[in-house]
Write a structure and sequence with these properties.
The structure holds two protein chains of two kinds. By secondary structure, chain A is α/β, with parallel strands linked by helices. Chain A has five helices and five strands; from the N terminus they run E-H-E-H-E-H-E-H-E-H. The chains are: A alpha/beta, B alpha+beta.
């Protein structure tokens, strides 16, 4: 049984993490926000291995991935998630500042659920994050994830 | 007959005619004489018979045989009378002469009176009558000898005359010859001389004004013409020869056996010979002297070489061959052409080969090819370099779009958070400072976006396709809906065509202009934005976006489209000043132009043109507008 209100946030930039968290918490979007700083850690979390070996079972309700991350980047994580039968159904949103067409194309090819740009303006950013959180964890219906 | 010389023929004819005439005449004469002679003899005999008959009447009346006999002997005078006899009334022989004559040699009985020719004799009866028939006299004249005498005499005369005539005829014919056959002979001789020596300068002598003379004239005229023609021909030949010799191209003529008949100077040179003398000894084994290879490097055996091919009927044109002389350091590249020349009946007569020296051209061509290749290589290299540069630029803008935005976001984010937390408790000055930070961050963000768009526009290729402008404009207006839904904006949009343009770039233009129109009319309660189109011959498509907003001072109109140029203060209307520069750049790339009119406080109109090239009729398929 998964926790419907856990959000996985994969972001390498500390500032972005802080801002995102501020936005998420402002609107009480989720119970728990798991933050990882690179793609490898994101995968570790998802597969409950490495330093997350003993984590609570269940998959997050939403994964917010940045594109540019060290070790394993967002697209790679996306690919792994979408190729894994058990994880495929989990919503993945790319939250990134890159508007480059190739990235967009690649992400959608890999099956991303949504691709959202990080607005420069903070207010817009907060709104975007809130909307995302509310949409994906509250409004969006999904099958029971294990 | 035709083969007998004229001279002899003439002589023969003359003689022949003379002889014929003479014989005819003589013959006629002869016959006439003959007949006359016979007649005369007959008459003579008749007369004699009559005389004798008259004389013998007495003897017969008185049955005096001796007298009779005596009378008969008078016949002696006429030596040719061989028999004479008197018959009595009853037809009995009375007397005969000569005595030696037997009875058997005399007719048995008396015949009819009159004398007749019997074979060679003339004989007959003359009745003797004196107051009644007494008897008959028989006389027989032996003609033979008489005739013979006469004949011989006649013949002798004839021959004599003939001889004289023949002599005269001979002389005559001799004369005729000089008149006729000599001139003809002279003509014939001239003709012979001309034909033997091929000398057309001789002329036949004109020996008179008759037909032969005229013939001589015509003959001479003909000779003159031939001489003239020969001269003209020789001239022509000389001219041709000169031309051929002076051709730059080599010309080679060979007979149907492949033996070379003629090479012009250029041909000699192209084969490495300085003169015909130098080449002559090699004429037969011409083929062995040279090695021929195609430009592809294939060696040509004798039967594949140009001359052999031409002799087989092939027509050559611009066939490039490398020719090398064995045993000499001499090599050229020649262009061969050639054809088989046929006579008027279509029989092949000779082969003509043309050679052009293309050694320089070939090496120039090779050089060009080498240069081309190296050029292509260099172009490829440059292109690769350019592509690399482009790629760098792309990754640069990528980093910019990604990496620059992040710190910007942080600045704004934390400033906002700070604002939220302590904003209310700050002094005015501090509040202002914080706001400045926030606004600056915003400004920087916009700048980065527009800079990126601007650079992307510069690099991108123009990808033209059909654009339904009305659709694009509507879509663009919709993009601004968040801003405009609170406002009262009257959109007056005229008929907008379908044109050829780069859709993405054109959209930028509309976005910019419409965005500006919306922005600068913000202070108006009721906004009117007009979008119109016109097509003119000079400019093509002319689009206009008019608003009733803040307008601008025409004095500064030139600056409008400059990069970073702004005519309003940032606190009035935000903006980076890149938008219009972008518009201008895009429109310029399409081959159009941009300008604007404005009046402060009244409004502004922005114009741009797009050339009407390949204006396509509205198609059934929806035009690309995204």
């Amino acid at each position: 049984m998964n926790d419907p209100h856990t959000i996985l946030l994969a972001e390498d930039n500390a500032h972005d993490v802080e801002l995102t968290m501020a936005a998420l918490t402002e609107h009480n979007v989720a119970n728990e926000i798991v933050v990882v700083n690179d793609g490898a850690q994101a995968l570790d979390y998802l597969y409950a291995r490495g330093k997350f070996a003993g984590r609570k079972a269940g998959l997050p309700a939403l994964a917010l991935l940045d594109l540019k991350m060290p070790k394993v980047d967002g697209l790679e994580v996306l690919r792994v998630i979408k190729e894994d039968e058990k994880m495929r159904a989990m919503p993945v949103v790319m939250l990134t500042s890159s508007r480059e067409e190739p990235d967009l194309v690649r992400a959608y090819q890999l099956g991303v659920n949504s691709y959202v740009l990080k607005p420069v303006e903070f207010q817009a950013f907060v709104d975007a994050v809130k909307n995302l959180g509310v949409y994906w964890t509250v409004h969006n219906q999904r099958p029971g994830l294990r | 007959m035709r083969n007998i010389p004229i001279r002899r023929r003439l002589t023969l004819v003359t003689l022949g005619i003379s002889l014929t005439v003479m014989l005819l005449m003589r013959g006629t004469f002869f016959v006439y004489e003959f007949l006359t002679f016979r007649e005369t003899t007959l008459r003579h005999l008749s007369s004699l018979a009559q005389v004798l008959a008259t004389n013998s009447t007495a003897a017969l009346a008185f049955q005096n045989q001796d007298d009779a006999r005596e009378i008969l002997t008078a016949v002696r005078a006429e030596q040719h009378i061989v028999a004479a006899a008197i018959y009595d009334r009853s037809g009995r022989l009375f007397a005969k002469y000569p005595d030696s004559l037997s009875q058997a040699e005399l007719p048995a009985k008396v015949g009819d009176p009159g004398f007749r020719f019997e074979g060679t004799n003339l004989a007959g009866f003359q009745p003797i009558s004196e107051k009644g028939r007494l008897g008959a006299l028989y006389l027989r004249l032996e003609m033979g000898e008489v005739m013979r005498e006469w004949l011989w005499g006649s013949l002798r005369i004839a021959l004599a005359v003939m001889g004289v005539v023949l002599v005269i005829a001979w002389l005559l014919s001799g004369w005729v010859q000089t008149q006729i056959s000599d001139p003809i002979l002279a003509l014939a001789q001239t003709a012979q001389v001309v034909s033997e020596r091929r000398d057309f300068t001789v002329r036949a002598p004109k020996l008179g004004d008759d037909e032969v003379g005229r013939l001589a004239d015509s003959f001479n005229q003909m000779l003159g013409q031939i001489e003239e023609q020969n001269r003209a021909l020789r001239q022509q030949e000389n001219r041709l020869q000169t031309i051929i010799e002076n051709l730059d191209e080599g010309l080679l003529v060979a007979d149907m056996n492949g033996k070379i008949q003629h090479l012009n100077r250029a041909a000699l040179e192209l084969h490495g010979f300085k003169s015909l003398e130098e080449c002559r000894p090699h004429m037969h084994e011409f083929g062995d002297l040279f090695e021929l290879t195609t430009t592809a490097g294939k060696a040509l055996p004798l039967e594949q070489r140009p001359l052999a091919r031409i002799l087989r009927g092939q027509v050559l044109h611009d066939w490039e061959i490398r020719i090398r002389r064995r045993g000499a350091a001499w090599e050229r590249v020649l262009s061969y052409g050639g054809v088989l020349v046929k006579d008027t009946e279509g029989r092949p007569m000779m082969a003509v080969v043309t050679l052009a020296d293309i050694t320089e051209r070939k090496s120039a061509e090779d050089e060009i090819m080498r240069l081309n290749n190296s050029l292509e290589r260099r172009v490829a290299e440059r292109t690769a370099e350019l592509e690399a540069a482009n790629k760098e630029l792309e990754s640069f803008s990528y980093s910019v779009s990604h990496d620059l935005r992040a710190p910007l976001r942080h600045i704004d984010g934390f400033a906002q958070l700070l604002n939220k937390r302590v904003g209310q408790s700050l002094a005015e000055v501090d509040k202002r400072y914080l706001n400045n930070i926030i606004n600056s961050a915003k400004g920087l963000g916009l700048l980065i976006d527009e800079l990126l768009a601007f650079s992307r526009m510069g690099r991108a290729e123009l990808r033209q396709s059909d654009v339904a402008v009305r659709v694009m404009v509507d879509e663009t207006i919709r993009e601004f809906q968040p801003e405009t839904q609170q406002r009262q904006i009257e959109w007056r949009i005229g008929a907008l065509p379908t044109i050829q343009a780069d859709p993405a770039m054109l959209r930028q233009v509309w976005r910019n202009l419409i965005g500006n129109a919306i922005k600068y009319t913000r202070q108006r309660a009721a906004t009117t934005i007009e979008i119109s189109h016109q097509q003119t011959e000079n400019e093509g498509h002319v689009f206009a976006v008019r608003d009733n907003g803040a307008g601008f001072d025409m004095q500064y109109a030139a600056k409008l489209f400059g990069v970073f140029q702004r005519l309003h203060h940032a606190n009035e209307f935000e903006g980076t000043g890149i938008g219009l520069a972008n518009v201008r750049r895009i429109i310029l790339r399409h081959g159009g132009r941009t300008w604007a009119e404005g009046e402060v406080g009244v409004g502004a109109t922005f114009y741009f043109t797009l050339p009407a090239l390949r204006v396509s009729a509205a198609k059934s398929a929806p035009a690309l507008s995204s």
